[in-house]
Write a structure and sequence with these properties.
Radius of gyration of chain A: 24 Å
Number of helices of chain B: 17
Number of strands of chain A: 11
Structural class of chain B: alpha+beta
Oligomer: heterodimer
Largest sheet of chain B: 8 strands, mixed
Distance between the termini of chain A: 56 Å
Order of helices and strands of chain A: HEEHHEEHHHHHEHEEHHEEHHHHHEHEH
Helix content of chain A: 40-55%
Largest interface: A-B, 65 and 71 residues
Shape of chain B: globular
Shape of chain A: globular
Strand content of chain A: 15-25%
Amino acid sequence: MTHFAKAFITLLSILYGISIFADPTLLYEQDPTLLTTNIQIVIRTGSASDPKDKVGLAELLASLLTRGTQTLTRTEFQKKVEGLGGTLSGDAGTDNIVFSGEVIKENTQAFLDLMESMLLTPRLAPEEFDALKRETLASIAHIKNNNNRLAGLAIRKEFFAGTPLELPGNGSLTTVKNIQLQDLKKIYTDWFHQSNILFAVVSALPEESFTARIKNLAKRLPEGKYKPYQSIAPAIFPKNTLIVIQKPRTETGVVMMGQTGFTVHHPDRYVFETANYAFGGSGLTARLFKIIRGELGWTYSIGSTYTAMGALSDQQNLFLIYQTPSFEFTSKSLFKTLAMWQQYLQQGLLPQELKMAQESLINSYPFEFDTAAKRLAQRVYSHLYQVPILSQDKFSSEIGATSNQKLLPALAKQHEKQSWLVSIVGDKNAIQAQLDEEQRFVPKEERLTISKVVTPEQIIE
Amino acid sequence: MKIHIALGMLFSGLLVADPGPGYRKLAVNKLFNGDTINEFELDNGLSVIHVPRSQAKVLTFQIWFDVGSNSEKLDPKLKKTGIAHLFEHMMFRGTDRFPDGSFDEISSRLGATSQNATTSFYRTNYFESIPSNQLEVVLALESDRMANLKLTQEGLEKEKGAVVGELRRALDSPVNEAYNALMELAYQKIPFRWTVLGTEKEIKGFTLEEAQYFYKTYYAPNNGTIVVVGDVEEEPLLNLLIKYFGQMKPQTIPSYSLPPEPLQARERTKVFSHPQATSEILLMGYKIPPISSLSVIPLGILSAHLSSGMEGRLRKLLIDTGVAVNAYASPSYRPDLFQIFVQLAEGHKAKEAIQIIDQEVKSLSEKIISEEDFNRARNQEKLDLYGSIDKNNSLARWLGEFNALAGNYMRGFEIIEGYNILDRKEVMEAANDYLVRSRRSVVIVTPSPTAPQKGKGKK
């Protein structure tokens, strides 16, 4: 490649986050002040592709790959990684598996050798698979201790019932028990190919230290065809539905309220993000926080998000309002939130709320790019989901264009036909008593009632 | 110890007797990545630590006060805990110039991120990261609430409610309760035995007069340190700091010595149940020397050996074997305890974990750590530091915390440098000296008999 061509493509890379390499793809950022090198390898298939009775498969494979190579046992491999001053982990998301490595910069090349072996010649040893499965099952059992996770999982289970997404990426006790080593070997063969991989590096070392090695590494993977992700549609609840996760003697109630969200390509994405920032997304300055925590003092935390399932992607996300009220205020806080939501749907935002959200989002945008690692993460995201990285001016223009004229029809279209799926962690009798008290003047047929009571064991089984 | 002399040579900051208009430059130090750390003191005693960086048009501002729950318990005018933490909330309640709610609103409009405050036993801090062109507005806000906070009965009562909510939320956490129990068990006299949050009775009982006394006494310039890391040069920063903080008057800060703690002669144990626990929790604390001691260097290696990475010994012995779902060791300072935490897997008992840990500690006390294990532990500690100092807010937190903890913001780097000249034998000696049962307090939390049990309650 000529110097000019390389410079031109590097420019394209900076402007649009598109690498010079179509296959394999390397996204690179150099920062001479860095003391560590950060390497990410992204496999563009994830836990949404797990069979629904074997959810946890992608997550197990991601972890098992970091447990030894054909020439190094798990202990030998991990001691080498950590002895170099490195750390290496594998995690599955909905639509990808990400291997993240970081090492003190002097040992970058030796660390790359290890990552290469992990990727091309993993050990996939039966004894390590058994150990990993056992650890995963213990970790899933431990979720019972975490009320926030229980409430979130209950919501997820209802929205995505009957699909792999009804469970988190690490699966449930039943689905993990179903997984066999040959299942992992099969997806390793199916998913780890040249067209399904992306490399991203941020380092103090020059780009030349990586390009040839990574191109060569990718060439040694089999050829294959990239399959674009197909979003799984969440359910829509026509009336408010309440699930209680039975857990007596809690001091704090955990309340989560869910509706369907959208993908990263939604045309009103920035309108929703701006408006939600003012309604519940900004923490201390959001409307929900100011009233339910600040004025009424019923809850310690409260907020709302359109990214309940992680960053916006090609998968339709969930919209969530979450709060942790003192238990005695659980129902009061829930009904107040419902009323505030109705008011928001009908009237949108006050001018000062909108102005504050816009200023805040626009002025904080530089923090999306203030470290080399963040800049690279933006480029990876842009590449994976084919969304542009907005310049400050373009971002300001998108956010600044939000108004009630745009917001109200967008809210109506997205939310009007939906009701809430609510999950509460607490004692069902105490919650029922609170619901009765709060709705004593509401006709019986219009009251919110408990639709389902589940135990923590049922959530994770 | 042979590292003693060498450590004295490290990071010997250039002392600069440079009297300027309203401030003195005290030292200049260099970071591993070439960044410069400047230290100043304003004439009113306010300390300033500054790391200029120009990679992005952003910076982190933090202000740290040398007051936490220990001070209030020892202050004869207060003698209770909780007000330092309550004050962390009150500081967002407004002034005449910036009324209630406007601090959050203005800083949010500026684009501030990572804005929050925390309180510990020995310090309170407030922090935010901002676009660098907004520094002056933040300094106006921060200096105003430091000098002119509007303390009202109404505001105090509202925050008491929020803090009680926070306290109740903490009560739901068996891990949090285990920590509180460990502090109470390990310390009979030092106020670490009382929680930072205080009790519900103490929180509800604070008066406006106590709040006013606390504010005037402890939120003084000569009791504070400002840390700024990011895109601002020395001269404009100092000019702004003098403009906004330079007029504040220093106060007489009460000086208290921690009461002498009776020597612990034997192991102490407490076992209790918690309604939200679904498996047993083990938390142990061994008394260790303070952060200024040379022994913290081998103790840092011991903790990394036990819990860093996938090859940490506790992981191999407890998690990989299915006994626990989480396990780590970590030295903490003020309180000076080497803590080991284990969340047992269902069906396993804390006693099993204690036996395994005791065996491992015995081995560490009898055998010199292998070179391979030593290098792994040391490099993991370096990775931990190197990976965080490129971020403005984590570097600022690192500098501020060590400054509050040790009175020396370079102490964290000295410890990391100390690993390079540590003899492996000293790791064994530290295990022998400190990881002994007579220095240990042990807390075990068991699931409550009334907590939901596996298999019960299913339809």
